[in-house]
Design goal:
The chain is of the alpha+beta class and 758 residues long. Helices cover 28% and strands 27% of the residues. The strands form 11 sheets. A 5-stranded mixed beta barrel has the order 3-4-5-7-6. A 5-stranded mixed β-barrel has the order 8-9-10-12-11. The protein has a 5-stranded mixed β-sheet with strand order 13-20-19-16-15. It is globular.
């Protein structure tokens, strides 16, 4: 293959190889490229690696021996994920250098799990994949072949400087034990919260600071840590905000919307509620039962499928609630204004009308779009006080009377009853902690809860009767594996759990009711809780085990949950509640989008994952606030309850605050402790001292780290042996000749694992 004007010997650049391939009269291979550039020996090996890299980057395509320059988007190329839409990753070519200013194509990645199922863990923003691409009528699609190593896996942490002047990144994730050396501070100062990226591919790469986030212990910083760590979208784009402003001005049409403004409907909410999306009303029907109404904000009227607001809401899945802020699912002009059921103002609502008999059974239901004017917004504590002090108005008394009937039905179906205290962090105007306490559970909470459950059941059954799509709230029966573990654990208390019987929530309730000792009851309650599955959303009904309900959906909170909005849209279609097309650049319809109607499972998976993300972020933030609250009380002794036992120690929570921390087994004294996995206890070999779940112990707080939310405890009479976490690693070096030499021998923290010498 004769070529003129051969270049000088040496490994060619990518551009030289591409120019050669493009100008070659036919497809060339590695041998032709090597011959043209006069490569010899090791250079040929380097060329092979270079061609492989170029193929992965999408610059060339071909088989092992034949390469050609790709035209347009390569059939196989490296893609970078830039966004997640409806649970699917959107990517662009990782290397995009067109001759003109053509923007890169947006490619929807189609992920497949085993046997055609969806993969258990979706790609994340920033991931790089080698993918096969194809163009279809609906745009470009990519089929990932393998996930490539991330060029930059960001780490959130705080800059610390050691005595030698070296900068370290102390991670805020308590699962990461060690700090990392910072090679590029990027203008960050000691003590600042930063985002860093690893440099290099070693086991312990150094860190480059790419973003400075500010003071980590400043008020309102803890929620920012969670937002960044979990990638929670917390900024609305201008297009979304513009559409929200247009939607907020939509006039309320009376077409297919009944007028309920004459009813004294009330919203009972937390005193610090930022939005009000549900309100209730009830009236005796003269036959021992009640006519009841649950009015829910008609979010589907304002947030329509296919619009910018809808696209952003799908990404978020739900609002995320932190002590100092809310990351809302919808822009504030909707969530806190026109959609919020404020007293004395006309609002669009979706109304669930129910007939409830004397035994609390919902015998009839219907759904309408309505116009409501909330009579009053009442805090839970105020509503409870009015009832307790016998100064409640008739409409409030009717709610309590109706609830008495609903409570009868609840008792009859016997849902799972577990006492799960909820921590509440109170802040002052400057974001400083004023109190951390267990939230009191009042009858007023139960009133609203049972009305909401009744409406959620009615929504699910109404859609089933119309053969319409349903996003169910599913809580499956505990798995056999978890029940076997529970059975083994109960056997240590000489209690039996027969797996041959039908497992119901009532079975657990009766088991707990028969236990008189508070300590033992707490132990078994914890075990029952651990045996439960995690609730999720899905289009195929599997019932709700915890509530002892056959059909259940979420209908009552569309301002903060996308699942509820989908249920509203399905009700709009099923009951023919579509209103006249709005004027302006707003999507025409408010029912289900065709993509959701044909595949409701996809978006159900997305919002289930978003819910788990929000729960983890909220829990971690509470942990950080608790740790900050306790950081000034290190050394104090608290009454704690053991919540988990492992071979390396046990976890305990402070009874009055709910702060969880670890007691390492190394701090439990001189004797060796064995771990009984079935009984989930640590047992001292010499003294037979035991530590078990539910046990009340006196523990001294040894460490409280606000950055990670981690607490560590030790026994009340322990001699302070907790080693601080996350400090920059330092080692004493001595000058020997021209080298710095560290201490010889086995590191002090590595135990000898040989046979004991006697």
């Amino acid at each position: 293959m004769p070529f003129k004007n051969r270049p000088a010997p040496g490994l060619p650049t990518r551009k030289q190889i591409l120019d050669f391939i493009q100008n070659a009269p036919e497809t060339v291979g590695k041998r032709e490229i090597s011959r043209h550039f006069g490569l010899q020996g090791a250079e040929k090996i380097q060329l092979k690696a270079l061609l492989k890299d170029m193929a992965e980057e999408g610059l060339i395509d071909g088989k092992r021996t034949a390469f050609h320059k790709m035209g347009g988007l390569p059939k196989v190329t490296v893609l970078r994920v830039i966004d997640i839409e409806e649970g699917e990753a959107i990517a662009v070519p990782d290397t995009w250098q067109p001759e003109d200013a053509t923007p890169p194509p947006r490619i929807r990645l189609i992920e497949k799990g085993p046997r055609g199922q969806r993969p258990p863990a979706a790609l994340r923003k920033g991931d790089r994949v080698l993918a096969r691409t194809e163009e279809s009528e609906t745009g470009w699609r990519g089929y990932p072949m393998k996930k490539l190593e991330l060029r930059a896996d960001q780490v959130l942490g705080v800059v610390e400087v050691d005595t030698a002047g070296k900068a370290w990144l102390a991670p805020v994730d308590k699962r990461i034990r060690n700090s990392s050396l910072i090679s590029d501070l990027g203008g960050a100062k000691p003590g600042e919260l930063v985002l860093g990226e690893p440099i290099g591919k070693s086991m312990r790469p150094s860190i480059k600071v790419v973003q400075v986030l500010g003071e980590p212990l400043a008020p309102k910083a803890f929620s920012l840590i969670a937002i960044h760590k979990h990638g929670i979208p917390n900024h609305f784009g201008q297009e979304t905000l513009d559409e929200a402003q247009l939607a907020a001005k939509l006039p309320l049409s009376h077409d297919k919307r009944e007028d309920l403004r004459h009813l004294p409907i009330v919203a009972i909410d937390p005193s610090d509620a930022r939005d009000h999306d549900d309100a209730i009303w009830a009236m005796p029907d003269g036959q021992g039962g009640f006519d009841a109404l649950v009015a829910i904000a008609d979010v589907s009227f304002y947030v329509r499928p296919g619009g910018e607001i809808d696209r952003e809401a799908r990404k978020r899945g739900n609002s995320v609630y932190f002590p100092d802020r809310v990351v809302p699912m919808l822009p504030e002009v909707l969530s806190a204004d026109v959609c919020s059921l404020r007293s004395g103002e006309d609002r669009a609502a979706m109304a669930c009308h129910m007939k409830i008999d004397a035994e609390g059974r919902v015998t009839e239901w219907r759904f309408t779009r309505a116009l409501v004017r909330i009579h009053e917004v009442i805090a839970y504590e105020e509503a409870q006080a009015r009832m307790d002090e016998d100064r409640a108005e008739d409409h409030l008394r009717h709610l309590w009377d109706c609830w008495a009937a609903l409570a009868t039905a609840r008792k009859s179906r016997d849902p799972l009853e577990l006492e799960l205290p909820e921590r509440r962090v109170k802040l002052d105007d400057k974001g400083r902690i004023t109190e951390i306490a267990i939230r009191e559970r009042l009858d007023a909470h139960k009133v609203v809860e049972d009305f909401m459950i009744a409406a959620n059941v009615a929504a699910a059954k109404a859609l089933e009767s119309k053969v319409a799509p349903v996003v169910y709230r599913i809580h499956e029966t505990p798995s056999r594996e978890k029940l076997m573990a529970l059975k083994d654990y109960l056997a240590t208390f000489e209690k039996k759990l027969s797996l041959g019987q039908v497992i119901t929530p009532g079975l657990f309730n009766r088991m707990l009711k028969d236990i008189t000792g508070e300590a033992e009851k707490a132990l078994i309650m914890e075990a029952v809780l651990r045996s439960q599955t995690q609730a999720y959303y899905g289009p195929s009904n599997a019932g709700h085990f915890g509530l002892a309900l056959g059909s259940y959906a979420h209908f009552t909170s569309p301002i903060r949950r996308y699942a509820d909005l989908l249920v509203h849209r399905s009700l709009v279609d099923a009951y023919g509640l579509e209103q006249p097309r709005p004027v302006g650049d707003i999507p025409a319809t408010s029912g289900l989008a065709e993509r959701d109607r044909s595949d409701l499972g996809r978006i159900s998976d997305v919002i289930s994952k978003a819910e788990r993300r929000a729960m983890e972020a909220e829990r971690e933030t509470i942990d950080r606030y608790v740790a900050a609250w306790l950081s000034s009380r290190v050394g104090e002794v608290f009454d704690c309850r053991i919540t988990g036992v492992q071979k390396f120690g046990f976890f305990a929570t402070i009874l009055s605050l709910g702060g969880d921390g670890l007691v390492p087994v190394s701090t439990l004294g001189d004797e060796r402790f064995g771990y009984d996995e079935k009984a989930q206890v640590l047992v001292g070999e010499r003294t037979r001292t035991t530590y078990a779940i539910g046990q009340i112990v006196r523990l001294r707080l040894a460490e409280a780290n606000p950055l990670t939310g981690a607490l560590k405890f030790e026994l009340e009479d322990a001699e302070g042996s907790i080693e601080p976490r996350g400090r920059p690693q330092q080692q004493a070096f001595q000058k020997r000749g021209n080298h710095l030499v560290g201490k010889r021998g086995r590191p002090a923290n590595i135990r000898h694992k040989g046979k004991n010498k006697r």
